[in-house]
Structure formats: C-alpha cells, structure tokens
Amino acid sequence: MSKEASLQNKDIQIGRGIQRYLNTTVLFGLILLLGITLRFYDLGAESYWIDEMFTVIEGHQSIFQLLASGRLDQPPAFYLPFHLWVQLFGYTEIGTRSFSALAGIGSIVLIYMVGRELFGKEVGLLGAFFMAITEFQIHFSQLARFYSFFEFMTLLSFLFFIRAFRSKKVIYFLLYGLASIIMVYSHTFGLFILVAQNLFFLTQEIKNRNAMVIWLICQVLIALTLLPYLFSRLFGAGGIKGAVESNLAGSPAPTIFDPMHFMYSFILPGRGERSWESLLVNFAIAGAFLVLGIWIYAVRQGMSEFLPSLKGWANSLQEVSGIKGNIFLVSCWLLCPMVLPFIASLVIAAPMYEVHYTISAAPAVYLLLALGLFSIRKMVPLIISLGALIIVIVPGLVDYYRTDTNEQWRQVAVYVEENSELNDVIVFAPNMGIGIQQRSFDWYYRGPLQGCGLDSSVLVDSRATLEALMRCVFGHQRFWVIIPNYPTVTSDERFKSFFLNLNQTTLHKIKEQQFVGLSVYLFELRK
User: Fold this and answer.
1) Which of the residue ranges 31-45, 63-77, 421-435 has the most confident prediction, judged by mean pLDDT?
2) How many domains does the chain have?
3) Which of 66-70, 299-303, 438-442 is least confident?
C-alpha cells in the first residue's frame, strides 16, 4: 500500500458513534460555541500580571522597534499582529486578551481539521471538545501572551504538513513552510516541532526521491529565513548556555516527573483553591461513575457479547489503513516538544522546561486521548468515558473562574490610594528589569504618590539594604512597601525577612495586607 494512504482522510469504521445522535456540523458548532463562551467569559476580570504587562509594553512599540528587538523566547511574530490588534481594540484587559482568545478559538477549529485528516471526523470532534473545555487551554486563551498564538500556528503548520505529505502538491509545501516560519517566530520551541515533522517525513519518504527533494528545499528555505534571527541570539555573547539563561531559564532543574505533570495539566484541572480532600472526592465520584456505567452497559449488552469485545478492541484499529503511520506522526508531535527540551535543560545545565513552553504538544495529547476513547467505545461508550472526564473537569473550571490567579495589582492600587497620605512614598521591592513591578502598579494607580524601586543587588546584607531604602524614602516619614509573592524567587523572601525583622529598630510597621501574588505593608521611620 502506498505511503500516501497513511494520511488519507478516512473515518474510522468501527460504528457510527457520535454521529448516530447528531449531525457532525451541529456537534462541531456546539463545541465551538462552548469554546468561545469559556474563553470570553470573565475575560477582563483579573488584573494584568507582570508578564502580560511586558506584552502591553511591547504592543506600544512601533513595528520597526518590534522587528529590531525580540528575545529568544519571544520572537516578533506574535507582537506584530498584536500591535495592529491593540490599535483597533485598545489596551484594556479585554482588548488585549481577546487576541489570545481568538487564537484559542482558532485552535479548536484547526484541531478538528487535523484530527479529521488523520483519524476521521469523530476523533476530530473529540479532540476539539478537549481543546474547548480544558482549563489549561482556557487559561492561556485568557492571557495577553503569545502561547495561544504559538499553539495556533503549530496546528496550522501540522495541517499543511499533513496535506503536503499526502498530496505532494507544491502549494501545500509553500503554505507549510510559511506557517512553520511564523510558528518558530512565535516561540523558539517551534524548532522542536520542526524536528518532529522531519523525523516523521524522513522515516516515511526516505525512498521517494521526488518527495525528498521538495522536502529538503522547503527545509532549507525555512532555515534560511530563521537563521538571521536565531543565530545572533543563540551564538552571541555567552553562547547557547548564556542565551538560554538570559531568555528561557529561571526554572528549577526538571525532574522525571515533570513530563507526566505537564500531560496531566493539559487535560485535567489544577487543584486551585480546592482542598486535597475535595479533589480526591471529585476523582472518586468520576471513578465510581465510570465503573458503574461500564457495569450497566455490560449487563444491558450481555456478557456473551461484552467479554469478546475486551479481547478484540485493539484489533479494530488495524481495520483502518495507515493508522500506525498516523499514530507515529502524533507520537512524534507529542514527544519532541516534551522530551527534547527536557534533555537540553540537563545537557546545557540551564533549565528551560516549563509547562507553558510545551503547549505545542497539548493538541497531540488531545488527539491520542480522543483516538483511545473512540477505539474502546464498544467496551466503554463515549457517553460514559466523557461523562467521567466532565465530572473531573467541571469543578476545576468553576474554581478557575471564581478564583483570582493573577497578581492583584488593581486591588493593590485601590488599597494604597484609599489608605495613603499625601506625603507617603511607594517602595517596590524588588523592581525588576525595566521597573516592571512599578509599571504594573502605575497602570491601575490614580493617586498622587511617587514610587521608587529597590534592586535585588542591594540584598548583600541588612546594612546595604537599609542604606538603599533610606535613599529611596528620603524626605518621607511614611512609606508603602509592595513585595511580590513568587515562590521560586528568593529575593522576595529576603526582602520580606528584612522588612519584617522583629529586631529592626529603624522601621515600624503600621499596616499589612495580603493580596493574590502581592504583599503590601505600610511603614514609618522611628524617631
């Protein structure tokens, strides 16, 4: 059988499944409507957090500045359309985040198209459903950051890749090349997607000279387009390790459990504000629903029919031509963005393994899960397996929408404005980089107080910190101190230890208020 058949658009003929109840178009429309609702609901409720504030600041730059700047982890492909978007819709939370929301909605459409190309309409529908309802996807579709756009371009790259592989038409190779270039210029981890696609193509088409020539030309053109940007950033001062440390690092060294944790996050909700007990009860209810549903189904079907289906379910996939090749492609898609950065973090001793960087692997997880649930539906009907997943997911979504996760800069600004006096001053400890903490606060603050920042470098000892503070608050008797609560940033805790030291004779604490991600204190100097 020809290799082109491995990516033919064929429905898995193991029964009518979902389509026996509703038309495919109607089902997809309902899934898309659900995804749109979940992404736009409460979109502007939370304050910007500092990473989003970086995006807003970048959006204020001109197109020329955006092209000239850019970090290794933040190439300009996201910021160029984002810049044009905010010119039309403004810099409000809804205005900026709606760009990511639309990219997330587009990803629902694309995963359906990719799933349909590989495994049929029903698997495509299930993949789109998982993309629509998972907390992971909703969260990044509601952030003014580039991750949702990166995932959208990853799916577009794979869609054109599949069509180019199947048809060998030049137009699809050109579209694939263009989508892939934008993908890598959206986030450098797109390089791992290129590795996955090359691994699949070279193993499947190694003997097809004409296809190999077109493919190699396409990859050379992609490389030539990417090299001017990536070469200077990867091989500049400090080499690759220096580039990673200054652009992608800052995370703890990865452990063997991280990939499993990431894949869990792709599908199932985080604990959030829920207790471990309530989370376990939630899983127990889902498990009981699954077991009871299977038992009822087996009894109604009859054990004489149900038991043989347990033995032969895996063979049902063999009925579809090319299914192994399609699974291999999606497996490459999953493993390369998950495994290669993990290995790279260990090899170059500069950790760069974060769940949001691996977002391009999430659609592969949804497609494999969809294929798995669809293939076993003679043993576990979809209404039962999906019902169990929904029981787990929905309480997490409720918790997600009712709980703030971003730093509450808006609330902090209001609190300071309502409780301050005219001669107070605001101290940001620390005020990192371009003064991002103060800029995040100033975005919401409408009062007259001036601010100053303490750099982490003053934390040499208590005396150096105190001297820097005295310069910062010179001429003021009272001052506010705002300290972030980042669990992995040691300078935050060191500043708290300094200001809250009970043996501190120079400072007297008047007020203290805790917000999500931020601690706020009011001090006065002792006379």
Assistant:
1) 31-45
2) 2
3) 66-70
pLDDT reported for residue 321: 47
Contact criterion met (CB below 8 Å) for 53 and 168: no
Burial of 227 (0-12, 13-18, 19+ CB in 10 A): exposed
Query: What is the predicted pLDDT for the residue at 22?
Result: 64
The predicted structure's pLDDT at residue 11: 41
Alpha-carbon gap, residue 66 to 77, rounded angstroms: 9
The last residue of a domain, from among 340, 371, 402: 402
| Residue 313 shares a structural domain with residue 416 | no
- Do 254 and 302 share a domain, yes or no? yes
Do 243 and 341 sit in the same domain of this protein? yes
Looking at the fold, whether 321 and 458 belong to one and the same domain comes out as no
SS3 479: strand
Could you write out the DSSP letters of every residue in 254-308? P-TTHHHHHHHHHHSPP-TTS-HHHHHHHHHHHHHHHHHHHHHHHHHH-HHHHHH
Q: What is the mean pLDDT of residues 303-328?
A: 65
The Cα 52–Cα 86 span in angstroms is 13
Residue 6 within a domain:
no
Task: Clarify whether residues 395 and 483 are in a common domain.
Answer: no
Q: What is the DSSP letter of 376?
A: T
How many residues are present in the chain? 527
**Does the pLDDT at position 240 exceed 80?**
no
Residues 51, 180 within the same domain: yes
Alpha-carbon torsion (153, 128, 279, 48), positive or negative: positive
Entry pTM: 0.90
Determine which helix (DSSP H) or strand (DSSP E) holds 428, and give its type and residue range.
strand 425-428
| 3 state SS of 510 | strand
Task: Provide the residue range defining the domain that includes 465.
Answer: 409-525
Peptide bond into 430 cis (omega under 30): yes
Q: Do strands 425-428 and 478-484 pair parallel, antiparallel, or not at all (unpaired)?
A: parallel
Question: Which helix or strand (DSSP H or E) is residue 36 part of?
Answer: helix 24-40
Residue 421 and residue 398 share a domain:
no
Residue range 3-26: average pLDDT?
54
User: How does the average pLDDT of the chain come out, rounded?
Assistant: 87
Domain boundary pick from 402, 431, 452? 402
| 414 close to 47: Cβ distance less than 8 angstroms | no
Q: Is residue 446 part of a domain?
A: yes
Half-sphere exposure of 260 (CA within 13 A, CB side): 3
> Residue 5: inside a domain, yes or no?
no
The sheet carrying 478-484 orders its strands as: 450-453, 425-428, 478-484, 518-525, 507-515
For residue 7, being part of any structural domain is answered with no
Question: Looking at the structure, do residues 388 and 413 belong to the same domain, yes or no?
Answer: no
* 450-453 and 425-428 beta bridge pairing: parallel
